[in-house]
Write a structure and sequence with these properties.
Largest sheet: 2 strands, antiparallel
CATH class of the largest domain: Mainly Alpha
Helix content: 25-40%
Strand content: under 5%
Number of strands: 4
Bound molecules: heme C
Shape: globular
CATH architecture of the largest domain: Orthogonal Bundle
Distance between the termini: 56 Å
Radius of gyration: 23 Å
Number of helices: 17
Order of helices and strands: HHHEEHHHHHHHHEHEHHHHH
Length: about 475
């Protein structure tokens, strides 16, 4: 039965593809066929995004979404109550922070105006990786989180996920996005603060996440104390079947609500490309279609990795992306980031990072796992000759608030010829000769991945949050 059903689906897909091919072939006539262009490139186009691609078919309880929105913007989830999720994933900065590397707790200000703080509150280091955008992460296929995929499904774990918390990760998390929301609060640099500053930072530094006085228990205790009309207690009881009184609130409930908010607010599947795939051929300009052809054909070969409905295969590749920042503690001096190897322990995975989605890519500079490219064209051109691009990388483009000691740390990896050679040696992306015209068309296509409803996200910001803490950064 199910076999027959999928055969039928496949046939329907085939018919749709054929119709699409005919339309596309008409439109690209005149761009000049070149050797190596795969005539069947349109078969690489994904099917249109549908509700069924998202967790709970894209339907979320509005009360849960509102709760998640307030939690996302509430600094009460940070040890020193001075930073929220939104500080690094803000609607005014494309759900990122506009910086190459974030400034965590202790910094002040928002986006590219954020500073590194002052006095004893000043940050000790930069966050070692770029804050990725949060677009479409409520889609079921995004089961792998972080640049190195250290959150991923694992049926052999009680929670259903492998994560840095191992067996401590609670059961009852809705999806990978909810699992992810368990972790920023446990990081001293991101949200918890330095040991000695507050009791959450103390237990976070000791690695106590799930204990009776661990990070998650202490945060739940804070939320239980915010009662009264419009407070958290009232909302958690209304939203969760297994919360009947303040005592039942756990941090995992907060994580599920946050994930519901992220999924609904930043679902972005109405770009010109989406409209085109749904049959509205005029949604994309001719130059965007030309770029699409380069992207999906063996001319650009981009879709060999940036495949599927969200332009990612969620796989891991070493493409010689430059590194910057203090690193993840890897390598002889600790200033490297080994990427996927950190998760698998397999040296073959060294410097491999997850293929990022390219949805709304024009809205989310800087690019790369350490934000080393400040503009889209440089990020695209890097792929054309990754090794050359690595060796000629100019770190002056690294968009970070300056501080001499941090700047020195930023440059360590790229100033170490042995490290640069090692990153180059591991590159697994073959050089491609694209003309300037072709690169310009690729950028045209990438711009067709911008959902216009994400150009104005001011409504995602709540007016106030239940803790009463300020929304200002
Ligand atoms: C100090 C900045 C900072 C704060 C605060 C912060 N994040 Fe992040 N976020 C990051 C960075 C950096 C990464 C990538 C880390 C990595 O891959 O190792 C990330 C990754 C993510 C991802 C994974 C995206 C992907 O494509 O895999 C999600 C989702 C996310 N953060 C949501 C949140 C939520 C929810 C909160 C609050 C509970 C939060 N972040 C707080 C900086 C921050
Ligand atoms: C071999 C697989 C592979 C191919 C082929 C590939 N990419 Fe990528 N791409 C990646 C990976 C992996 C990253 C992230 C690398 C990192 O951060 O270390 C990336 C990053 C990017 C980024 C930056 C995204 C961000 O959010 O930081 C852009 C833009 C991009 N690719 C566009 C393209 C285009 C256009 C093509 C075709 C010319 C292409 N890619 C071909 C694997 C690939």
């Amino acid at each position: 039965m199910s076999g027959e059903y999928s055969m039928k689906q496949k046939r329907q897909q085939g018919v749709r593809r054929l119709a699409l091919a005919a339309g596309v072939a008409l439109l690209v006539v005149g761009t000049g066929a070149q050797a190596g262009w795969n005539n069947g490139w349109w078969n690489n186009l994904p099917a249109p995004v549908a509700d069924a691609d998202y967790f709970a078919n894209g339907n979320q309880d509005p009360a849960k979404v509102k709760l998640g929105q307030e939690l996302f913007f509430d600094k009460v989830l940070s040890g020193n109550m001075n930073i929220s999720c939104a500080t690094c994933h803000h609607p005014l900065a494309g759900t990122g922070d506009g910086l190459a590397l974030p400034v965590g707790e202790g910094g002040r200000g928002l986006g590219v105006t954020r500073d590194t703080g002052s006095g004893s509150d000043a940050v000790h280091e930069r966050v070692p990786r770029n804050a990725p955008p949060v677009f479409n992460l409520g889609a079921n296929e995004f089961s792998v989180m972080f640049h190195d995929g250290r959150i991923q499904p694992d049926a052999g774990m009680p929670s259903g996920f492998e994560s840095p918390a191992g067996m401590d990760l609670p059961e009852g998390l809705d999806n990978a996005l909810a699992v992810q929301a368990m972790f920023p609060v446990t990081s001293g640099t991101e949200m918890a603060g330095q040991p000695g500053e507050n009791t959450i930072a103390d237990v976070a530094a000791a690695g106590d996440l799930a204990g009776p006085n661990g990070v998650w228990a202490q945060l739940a205790e804070r939320l239980r104390g915010i009662d009264g009309p419009g407070g958290y207690v009232e909302q958690f009881i209304a939203v969760f079947d297994d919360v009947n009184s303040a005592d039942d609130i756990e941090y995992r409930h907060a994580a599920n609500a946050i994930a519901a908010f992220e999924a609904v607010a930043w679902r972005a599947d109405d770009s010109p490309f989406d409209r085109f795939l749904r049959g509205k051929r005029s949604a994309m300009s001719l130059n965007q279609i030309r770029g699409m052809r380069i992207f999906y054909s063996n001319r650009g070969n981009c879709s060999s990795c940036h495949s599927g409905k969200f332009q990612t295969d969620l796989n891991f590749y070493a493409i010689a992306m430059p590194q910057a920042g203090g690193g993840k503690g890897d390598g002889m001096f600790g200033y490297e980031d080994f990427g996927r190897e950190r998760v698998t322990g397999n040296i073959a995975d060294r410097y491999r990072f997850r293929t990022p989605t390219l949805r709304n890519i024009a809205l989310t500079p800087p690019y790369g796992h350490a934000g080393t490219y400040d503009d889209l064209e440089s990020a695209v051109r890097h792929h054309l000759n990754a090794v050359n691009s690595l060796y000629s990388y100019d770190i002056s483009q690294l968009r970070v608030p300056p501080r001499p000691d941090l700047n020195a740390a930023d440059a360590q990896a790229m100033n170490d010829p042995a490290v640069v050679d090692a990153i180059a040696a591991r590159s697994e992306i073959a050089p491609r000769n694209l003309t300037d015209w072709e690169v310009a068309r690729l950028i045209d296509f990438l711009n067709a991945l911008t959902d216009p409803s994400m150009l104005d996200m001011r409504d995602d910001v709540p007016v106030q949050v239940p803790s009463g803490l300020t929304l200002a950064e």
